[in-house]
DNA sequence: TGCGAAAACTATACGGCGTGAAGTTTCTGC
DNA sequence: GCAGAAACTTCACGCCGTATAGTTTTCGCA
């Protein structure tokens, strides 16, 4: 009995230290950008030696990967929650809610956005599996739900496109097709296009390229959503 | 006479060395990403000491700034050339040419794209003036020309939007308004939106986020252009 | 033509980085 | 109580940017 208790204690301490490392790393990223994530800085902040961290993460890239996983999951949670919270009966509102959640999360976590979608740290190479790709697929699945909501209105726009299922990643389709059995491949293309549109505007804004051209990125994004909803054939809300 | 000749010689040598530094830096960037741009690596490649480079660039950030200026100018030249080469009488073709030039340049110079639109090197802070912002405005001006070409067809979509001139950067307007005197503020918003759309798709592709979802980014981008031209009210080419 | 100055470059050094190897302390389970 | 594992430190290496001081090459002018 005491044995399992003490083993639990050690594991708990380990988990706490791991959490603290990640938390400190996120703080450093928030204050100094992804480039500020250094093992030595983290260790300094925690009163340890840099090498002590190697007991928790095999390499700095491993730590970054874990952070990306956490951050991407947080983004996926945010947009999923917004989608679920919006009334299902109004596709336009749901789309707007999703998009605003996406941009809102990015503006609230600009360094996280950079970590996910930009160059995180020089030389870092993202692994092909793990929580981050899963979260990316959750985001894409959410986008497809968005496209599915609009598809009855937008279908005619894709009458002469020729997308095949083989144009898309099997992993993504494995989640999407069971959820939306009636959706054609072109609807996935629409989802990716919408992703591109939103990502582009938010990305330009986060990286400061939009701020040098317009004073009202808010208004521009709002206009984007208005036009998006309209182009999907859903009547805009009054 | 000999004096001016020899002075010219020294200046020429200096210019050649400067050019070689930039060229080597671009090679390093192409092979190892923006993070591979290190003074020591450049010097090693050139058979010099790292400190010798300080005679040409005050700091590494200065070198990076110069590279960004060059690269951004090259992008602006590419899209401008494509625009000028396309027949003026067909707005749809011109828009497609511009967009394909944009994506083509990005795919041909992915590291350059990252250098311009991503985090170049950790801790680097871009200056507010110089050739790069100028090139950015050239790109935006080109985009506005694109929006202007489509405006007669697209105007009705913006009937109930409320953009003001004060929503946009004075520097940009200084170039845009004289060139297109009849264009309303909403057309600039349209230009920025188009920029966002194209940038988003290309950015996702360059950073590898699109490749994990679709096997045919080409097809997706082509579809984007088809829908873009259609949404602008220009009849798509058969 | 020769000399003082300026420009180009090297040598050395400092602190920060990721990381590997080896040693030390602390805790755990039998 | 003690073997062993886990946590952590110390030391080391090579990389980076960059500041300072010293050296060599080149130039302009008398």
TrEMBL record, chains A, B:
<dbReference type="GO" id="GO:0000976">
    <property type="term" value="F:transcription cis-regulatory region binding"/>
</dbReference>
<keyword id="KW-0804">Transcription</keyword>
<keyword id="KW-0805">Transcription regulation</keyword>
<feature type="domain" description="HTH tetR-type">
    <location>
        <begin position="15"/>
        <end position="75"/>
    </location>
</feature>
<dbReference type="Pfam" id="PF13305">
    <property type="entry name" value="TetR_C_33"/>
</dbReference>
<keyword id="KW-0238">DNA-binding</keyword>
<dbReference type="GO" id="GO:0003700">
    <property type="term" value="F:DNA-binding transcription factor activity"/>
</dbReference>
<feature type="DNA-binding region" description="H-T-H motif">
    <location>
        <begin position="38"/>
        <end position="57"/>
    </location>
</feature>
<dbReference type="InterPro" id="IPR025996">
    <property type="entry name" value="MT1864/Rv1816-like_C"/>
</dbReference>
<dbReference type="InterPro" id="IPR009057">
    <property type="entry name" value="Homeodomain-like_sf"/>
</dbReference>
<dbReference type="InterPro" id="IPR050109">
    <property type="entry name" value="HTH-type_TetR-like_transc_reg"/>
</dbReference>
<protein>
    <submittedName>
        <fullName>TetR/AcrR family transcriptional regulator</fullName>
    </submittedName>
</protein>
<dbReference type="InterPro" id="IPR001647">
    <property type="entry name" value="HTH_TetR"/>
</dbReference>
<dbReference type="InterPro" id="IPR036271">
    <property type="entry name" value="Tet_transcr_reg_TetR-rel_C_sf"/>
</dbReference>
<dbReference type="Pfam" id="PF00440">
    <property type="entry name" value="TetR_N"/>
</dbReference>
């Amino acid at each position: 009995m005491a044995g399992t208790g003490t083993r639990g204690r050690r594991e708990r301490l380990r988990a706490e230290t791991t959490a603290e490392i990640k938390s400190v790393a996120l703080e450093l990223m928030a204050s100094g950008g992804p480039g500020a994530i250094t093992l030595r800085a983290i260790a300094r902040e925690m009163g340890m030696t840099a090498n002590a961290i190697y007991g928790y993460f095999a390499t700095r890239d491993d730590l970054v990967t874990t952070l990306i996983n956490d951050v991407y999951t947080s983004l996926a949670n945010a947009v999923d929650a917004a989608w679920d919270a919006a009334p299902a009966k109004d596709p336009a509102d749901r789309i707007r809610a999703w998009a605003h959640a996406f941009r809102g999360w990015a503006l609230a976590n600009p360094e996280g956005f950079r970590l996910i979608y930009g160059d995180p740290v020089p030389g870092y190479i993202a692994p092909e599996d793990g929580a981050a790709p899963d979260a990316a697929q959750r985001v894409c699945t959410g986008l497809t739900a968005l496209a599915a909501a609009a598809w009855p209105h937008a279908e005619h726009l894709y009458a002469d496109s020729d997308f095949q299922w083989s144009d898309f990643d099997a992993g993504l389709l494995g989640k999407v097709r069971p959820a939306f059995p009636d959706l054609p491949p072109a609807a996935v293309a629409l989802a990716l296009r919408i992703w591109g549109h939103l990502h582009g505007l938010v990305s330009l804004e986060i990286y400061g390229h939009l701020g040098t051209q317009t004073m009202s990125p808010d208004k521009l994004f709002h206009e984007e959503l208005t036009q998006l909803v309209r182009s999907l054939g859903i009547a805009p809300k009054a």
